Amino acid sequence: MIDFNNKTVFKLKQNPEYAEKVSSLLLGDESIVDSYSSMRDGVVFTTKRIIAVNVQGLTGSKKDFTSMPYKNIVAYSVETSGTFDLDSELELYFSAIGKVRFEFSGKTAIIEISKHISQHALY
User: Fold this and answer.
1) Which ranges of 3-102 does DSSP label H, i.e. alpha helix?
2) Which residues fall within 8 angstroms of residue 69, CB to CB, at 6 or more apart?
3) What are the sequence ranges of the domains in the chain?
4) What is the pLDDT of residue 27?
C-alpha cells in the first residue's frame, strides 16, 4: 500500500490514457470517471473507488495499486483553482488509512470529482 504520509506529492495533470493502467482491476459494473498522472504515478477515479498507482523501479514494470472505496470516506476537502493559482487540491479522510492528499495542476474537473465523491460517500 502507498504510504500517503511519506509520499511526495506530485502535481497531477488530466490524462485520459492513464486509465488503461487500471483497466484490468475494474469490476464488471465499474467504469472510469477521470484519470490524472504525474511523470509516472497517477490517480484514477472510477464509479466505485479511487485507485492510486505508484510506479516503481527503473523500468516501471512494478506497480503498487491502492484501492480506496468511496464508501470509506468520512470527510473530504476541495480547494479550487484561482485566477493566478491554477492548482487545485483534494484531501480525503478514510476510516482505515487516514488522510490522502492529491494536488492537481492545470485543467481539472475538481468540482465534478467532488460531486461524484459526495454521491457515493453521503448515501
Assistant:
1) none
2) 48, 49
3) 11-121
4) 93
Please give the Cα distance from 118 to 87 (Å, whole number). 21
Say yes or no: domain 11-121 is CATH 3.90.1150.10: no
**Positive or negative, the Cα torsion across 66, 7, 99, 114?**
negative
The x, y and z cell numbers of residue 54, run together, are 505508484
| Cα angle 60, 62, 65; round to 5 | 110
Closest CA to 44 of 54, 57, 59, 29: 54
**Cell 481539472 found at:** 108
Q: List 42's β-bridge partners, or say none.
A: 37, 53
Q: What is the C-alpha to C-alpha distance for residues 32 and 76, in angstroms, rounded to an integer?
A: 20
Please say whether the beta carbons of 120 and 70 come within 8 A: yes
User: pLDDT tens digits, residue range 89-99?
Assistant: 899 999 878 88
Residue at grid coordinates 484561482: 82
